[in-house]
Amino acid sequence: MNKQNDIKNRLQKELGKNIPDLQIVATLTDKLLDQKEDAVRFSVDAQIINRLGYELVGKQETALSELIKNAYDADATSVEINFESYNNPGGTLTIIDNGNGMNVDVIKQAWMRLSTPDKNENPISPLYYRSRAGKKGIGRFAVQRLGKKLVLRTEVDGEDVGYEVVFNWDKDFIAGEDLTNIWNIIRPYKKKTSSKGTTLSILDLRDKWTHATMERAWKSVLFLQPPFKISNTPQADTCRSSKDTKLDPGFQVVINGLSDQGRLNEFSIQKSFLDHAIATITGYIDEDGRAHFSLNSKTLSSEDAHTSEQRYLVVGPIHLEVWYFIYSRDAMPGTSTRQALEMGQKFGGVRLYRNGFRVLPYGERLDDWLLLAEDTGRRNLLVPANNFNFFGQVEINRDKNPFLEETSSREGLIENEAFEELRSFTRQCIEWAAKRVAAIRDRKTKGTQAGFVSVVRKPSEVVGELLGDIDEEGSYGGEGQDSTLGSGDIRNILKDVQASAKAYEDYQSAQYESMARYEEMLRILASLGLSIAVFGHEITGVSNSVNKELGLFSRELKSLDTKLQTRLKARKNDIEKAINRVFDLGNYISHLISYTGSRKLETVSVRGRMNDFFGQFNEYMDKLGILFETNVTPRELRTCKMHPSELDSVLFNFLTNSIKALKRANQKNPKVRIDAYKDSKFVTIRFEDNGIGVSDAYKDRIFDAFFTTTEEDFDDIAGPGTGLGLRIVSDIASSYGGDVKLVDPTKGYRCCFEFRILRDCGN
Amino acid sequence: MEFTGIYIDDQEQNYGEFLNVTGKDSVKFRLDIRPNEAGKLVESILKANTDIVALDYRLDDNQRSFPEATYRAGGPAQMLREEMLDRPDEDFPIILISTEENIRQLYRPDETAHNLFDAWYLKTKLPDETYTKKVGTQIVGLIKGYKTIGDVAGKAQKHLTLLNLSLDEWNELNPSALLISLRETSVTHVIARILLQNVIKRPGLLLRPIDAYARLSLAPENDNLDKAFKFLFDAGLGYEGAFSDGWPRLWRHRFEKWAHENIGDPFSSVPGNNRVDFFNTVARTEYKAARSKWSGRDDELFSFACASCQAPTELKHSVAAHDPLVPKYCERRRICFECVQTDAYLRKALLIEALLIDGEDENIAALVRSGDFPKE
Questions:
Q1: What's the pTM?
Q2: In this complex, is the C-beta atom of B369 within 8 Å of any C-beta atom belonging to chain A?
Q3: Is B293 exposed, middle or buried (0-12, 13-18, 19+ CB in 10 A)?
Q4: Which of A347-361, B312-326, B327-341 has the lowest mean pLDDT?
Q5: ipTM above 0.90?
């Protein structure tokens, strides 16, 4: 009681002074309150600041991020971060923003109050209506983490004075002192009425800022904000009617440090992050309802455009601009895919803006208005195309899109036909672009995509990439996958590894299966080849015997009378004519076999081979009434090293197909033309005829093994269709670095195959 | 004259009928001698006192009918040649009748086997009348050539008789290497081989018709080229020595002399089209001039027939063929650029005689193949 009285007396005495010392009054008041016997209360030791600063915030870059967030929440449009003498401890860091600043009340009620509920109570910033990032009210103590001393200077627009407060953390905020008993002087100073913002000068930096730290700081800043300047953006619908509302000009962070070498390092979020987008997508609906999509990818060195067949006649003109991100090391070299993914998950999505104002909830984290998350989740869409893979906006206009009406709750648009068109257009555009990117990157785009051969990565590569994505804390992220930071990481990693191993095993199995099928085809061909060789040999033997007998018959004829001789000669000529075509084939096969016996690879003169081929078949073609022409340019054109007989095989296959096609077409002026020419590093052979052509229905299948349309057809040389000819041609082309395709014929022809193989370049 | 021959085949003996020759000089082949044990077969042939023997290459293919025949043509041919070593006046030609494939088998593994045969003919082409006519002519030529050689055996100056050449002309030519090789032997079939291989079948002392046409720059596409040959032959340029009945030839030295006199001096400097113009004037013909297969021009200085395509070819657009054993009195074979660039000469190599580019000219050939040979 005596102590209580003593405190009261001292308090009264101080209050009785003309100018009482308010610090003494506060201290005595606290002491007096502590004398209350029927209740207790918490008190705060001054070292709580150290706890909230140095001990709570582990990393320098995290501390810096917290301070930048505060600037954003204060409606700043730019933050400049300047380091001085940062290569060693003791340097200075200055953070200058042009935000709303603080008056004395705000300093007292918000800055000087721990765990202030200010941002919880005012989650939207007053000027640009930003959704404030901070909530806990302790972020500013990051300044204590960074340096031993802080000079806070803050200015509010429209006031003549600014305020400066100096905090000497290590000297004043020491253990044993009550926090409330530590006073910091607010020093007003004159300023321009129009100036505003807050400057934090952090003196006597606790740590040096190495290059690696600066890099990490940069990355922290990089992912703090959406990657693109939100020029027309954030405005909650509820605020749109406010006359004071201003368009958010965006938020720019610049770290400008001078290194020991005097080099200036300047960073810009927009430049660095958006440069990592694999592509930019733009799209619009024109006045006629036609949708136009375009894609531009510097990473893939590709541009593409597309006009949708679908017409959008209700919704009206729309414009779309989206950055497309794929979170994998190969698609985003030079940055952390994990951090990029974090960024995507926080800020990704395709937002909707009407007359420059954000229309919620489209593009919010949990909003899937384009059904991207659903379709990628169900694997209806196999390309990376979740919401977090896209950053962008769709712009609509109240006048030009009158049927896009708002709901009464101000949460979204009425889902009418116009909205469906809006959704369809947006989805079609970005799906088209994502698939185009996938096609360029050789990824499967649809679950049912036929004939696709995936570039399956080796599990070791995937493991290597995952290891690269795992940071010191063990969290990770990967392309198109949700990253769950924390204890589930190892399981997720193992799942990724298992998936890649499974994919690789499946790929290998498919390869083995394909090889087995190919081997089967080769076995069939080999046995066919043996049969043909035997057939050729037998034909040759028969041909020789028949010719001998006919020759002897002719000699015998000379002893007969002229009339009989003439009759029998005519009969002999008919027999010769009938069998000679078969013998031609036998001779050709024998000729081929004599070449095929050699396995030596050699460059082949295209003209020489073509001359031989022409010589071999010209007479036969002439008998069929087919105009047969060849041309080789330049005359010295040679193939890469190959089996010469394979070129014969290619020409023979094309020729037999042409003969069949000409017969089917019942062409009155049948013709076949072969043009061979130099085409960059290739020998290109165009084989054209004016036969029946290739039906659209068969175009995708003609190079498949055993595909034929001519089982019932037969010709002495062309023979029945085995369905192997074009497949063999295709395989030969592939073996020598080329390809074969059906192309548009020149005028006067109806079918043209273009066969390419590497040419001999003298090396 | 009437000559007789023997054709031996283990299967289709009647192929021998194509070898029969009718006319002023006729040859009748016996077909009744069939394969047997080698010694007995040789004995039968010698006993028949034949003028020529034709052997099918595979005589061991019909073991069911001729189980003792376990040899190919080279076996009895070798035995017959040995029997005739010291019987020059009884020696006779031996020819091979077979398929291209079998002939290749004989010639490729054993480079000396072909020395046993004076000539080979493709069995499969015998039914072709044009071919048979050529074969018949050569058969007669071989028989008469052997007779000529047999007649001069052991005589002095036999080389002049064999070649039907005056001493002055021989001295003018002075093919000493030929003289030495002819003097070294008195075996008829060896002399026949020397003459056939080095005088008759390759240009040098003599010119084949295609060599003469090439020098005259006559386009191969011309009809009745043999008329040109006959004109030259009748002009006194013809060879009338051993084997001339089977292989019409011109003396090269006589041709060159004639060409200098009638076409231009020096003849080799006269452009091809001009040569043809002069020839047409002299011979009263209307031949067209050859065009270079490389340059396409008809005013090139054509000087030989390409060893691959046989077309008139100019020296500057050709490379030397690999021809290491060529005697000095023979011309070295050359291959035209066109055949080099299109690899046609390699496909020629699939036939009986391989044709390769001489190593010294391989760098030129490489330029031609790649299209880098300098354009004119």
A1: 0.56
A2: yes
A3: buried
A4: A347-361
A5: no
